[in-house]
Amino acid sequence: MTTNIGALIRALKKAYPEAYCSLDHASPFELLAATILSAQCTDERVNLVTPALFAKYPGPAEMAAAPLPELEKLVHSTGFYKNKALSLKEASKAIVADFGGKVPRTMEELLTLRGVARKTANVVLGSAYGIAAGVVVDTHVKRVAFRLGLTKETDPGKIELALMNALPKEDWIWFAHALVLHGRGPCDARKPDCPACPLDKLCPKKGI
User: Fold this and answer.
1) Which member of 89, 119, 142, 171 is catalytic?
2) Per-residue pLDDT reduced to its tens digit, 83-98
3) Fewest CB atoms less than 10 Å from the CB: which of 62, 104, 118, 148?
4) Closest of 206, 186, 117, 207 to residue 156, by C-alpha
5) Closest C-alpha to 32, from 140, 116, 157, 135
6) Domain spanning 28-129: CATH superfamily
7) d(Cα 139, Cα 116) in Å, to the nearest integer?
8) pTM of the model
């Protein structure tokens, strides 16, 4: 079975018409910090941690000046807290020193920040700035894209390229959010609920 990308997009838009980033944020900087914290951590956990973090360090200047042990304490429950705290502090320093205190708006510039790879950069560009520079590939997107027959790749970079080639550019931002919602819903990692799936008739790996 070959995936009909047009039919798939129509079915996803019917099921998830307003799919959006599930990380709570009020600014590009807050989204950047939250996305750094979301590595190997649930968005729900990150959303529990960030209110206290942003109340104390609301912007890059404040976070750049924050004592590292204090940052580690605030983000401890997200896991890998030492590395994440250092990334928050160093990325904030670079934003202040190199970008005038503003989170950059290009992939190339974002990738210069500590703790930022393509996934994080795509989240920030898409959800903070509405810029479609690529497709976010997280664990849900990786799994669901494979199940839907959109790619046979396992490398996130190759998966992103396959999705960029398959999808209209105007759908890049929304599509990743829709796949995340779908992966958290009927397309569960361990036991997909195929009878309840809105993509049931389009899925080449139904029941797998």
Assistant:
1) 119
2) 999 999 999 999 999 9
3) 62
4) 117
5) 116
6) Hypothetical protein; domain 2 (1.10.340.30)
7) 17
8) 0.94
> Quick one: pLDDT band at residue 1, thresholds 50, 70, 90?
very low
Active site residue 191: no
11: closest CA among 193, 182, 190? 182
Name which of 5, 4, 10, 53 is nearest 29 in CA terms.
Answer: 53
138, 152, 188, 201: the active-site residue: 138
Q: What is the largest CA-CA distance in the chain?
A: 55
Write down the architecture of domain 5-19+136-202 according to CATH: Orthogonal Bundle (1.10)
**The residue type at 131:** I
d(CA 38, CA 138): 10
Q: Which two tokens stand for residue 100?
A: 């005038």
Q: Is 102 a catalytic residue?
A: no
Tell me the pLDDT tens digit for each residue of 9-24.
Answer: 999 999 999 999 999 9
> End-to-end alpha-carbon separation of the chain, Å?
14
Residue 204: predicted pLDDT: 87
The residue type found at 89 is K
Question: Using N-to-C axis directions, what is the helix angle for 28-37 and 43-56, rounded to 10°?
Answer: 130
